[in-house]
Amino acid sequence: MNFDSQVLEILRDQVSGIILGSIFLFIGVSALLMALLRRRDGSRLAVWFGTLSSLYGLRMLAQAPTAFALLPASIWPWRPYVIAGITYAILTPAVLFWLEITVGSVRWFVKAILGAAILLAVGGTAAALITRRPFVAETENSILAVVIMLVLAVINVVPSLARKCLTEPSRVLAAGSIALAGIALFNNLGNFFNRVPNVANLEPLGFAAFVLSLGYVAAQRVFSNERRLVAIDSELSVAREIQKSILPTSVPQLANLRVAASYLPMTSVAGDFYEFISLDEKHAGFLVADVSGHGVPAALIASMIKVAMHSVASNAPAPAEVLGGLNGILTPQLRGQFVTAAYLFIDLSSRKARYSAAGHPPLLYWNSRTSNLERIESNGLLFGVLPETTYPVCELDFNSGDRFLLYTDGLIETENSSGESFGDQRLRELISSHRSLPAPELSAVLLDEFARWQPTSNAQQDDVTLLVIDVAQRLQ
User: Fold this and answer.
1) Alpha helices, DSSP H, located in 132-202
2) Which residues of 446-471 are buried (b: 16+ CB within 10 A; e: fewer)?
């Protein structure tokens, strides 16, 4: 046989390994990139699947001298160590994948196997480098591989165990696991018993079946999550429309009041709520509430406040009765959640305002006669603590040019990139320095400053509601 024929024979023996190794590596890298781009629930499954496939592909390429020869010559002497290191490490992502899809008491066993796999990967690689014997831990690796394969085969073959131990039992996964388990079992037993026939040339085919089955499970999980997310988005869209419907569509049109209302939810739906009770052109009540937490649960409670307001509307001139009534209705239904609230009733005929709150940030009152911004605190217990409680009421005499501000704590507790809160003091300074602006423009300034305070890289940290109520310069 001439030299060219020998070269062709060598290449012919290695070409299948190079092709399969490249395919496994491509599949693995693609799965890792997908997991990196998506970063959603179920992405860990794609990470372990991608890592496993990539490592196996790299090992096949390293086992082909022709492929390894493409690397710099200085790396060639390390080829046995690369193959051994990958062999020791490859069990870890495989076990991590199974940890993601197992449930119940079997997870403790899988975690124990995972600890052993990690210890083998680290210890085997270290021992290989120290002893200069690349496959010094080959026996231990074979034992662990046999144990894992036997367990996987049993779990997948016995339907009752599959239903009990796996999140989503799959015939495809069972077939792939059994195919690889059978071949790997023969190969690893061959390390102990020379009479066991070696089927190493079939291992890539068994691994291919296994990888396809894992890919099927990972894709099934991803598509299942996608369907779930689409359903959630649809439900959130409906919830958003419902929440819009419970908020006032306009501000009260009173001859001597100018009202600006701003509402900035942190997510699609929010736990902040505000409501107006207009009795006539001279009397109106203003409520602001803040439910603990965010999202749909908080939005549902906000909807409950809307319904409860109908029951207390007849007591609009009496803040203590409004808050007491709301607390009595809501507390038995809150089940561990809480609500802060503030209620302001304005009587233009007597030029008096009555205010009460339930664990809420203070009312800010701009007194035009003294040119002073006052903090009015008249707090009782927040809703959700006791079903029966009383709320103190503060009565204020107001004049033309005065201003009231009601807000939720999302406005003052938002932090900048240094962890510093926006704060009550900064809010008061902005109100005082822009005291000449009408209600809508002042509201816009405050919200602009609030937006600038937040780190541009972070999403809004809490729901924000702001009501600015101006008394006309000339009361009629």
Assistant:
1) 138-157, 159-165, 171-189
2) beeebeebbeeeeeeebbbbbbbbbb
Per-residue pLDDT of 147-179, as tens digits, reads 877 787 777 777 787 778 877 666 666 666 666
Domain ranges of the chain: 3-232, 251-471
Taking phi over 0 as left and psi of -120 to 50 as alpha, with beta for the rest, 104 belongs to left
Share of the chain above pLDDT 90, in %: 30
Fold of 251-471: Phosphatase 2c; domain 1 (3.60.40)
203 pLDDT higher than 50: yes
Cα–Cα distance between 309 and 323 in angstroms, integer?
10
Count other C-beta atoms under 10 Å from residue 438's C-beta: 12
The CATH number that domain 3-232 falls under is: 1.20.1070
Are 3-232 and 251-471 in the same CATH fold? no
Query: Structure pTM?
Result: 0.58
Predicted confidence (pLDDT) per residue in 267-290, tens digit? 767 778 899 998 888 899 999 999
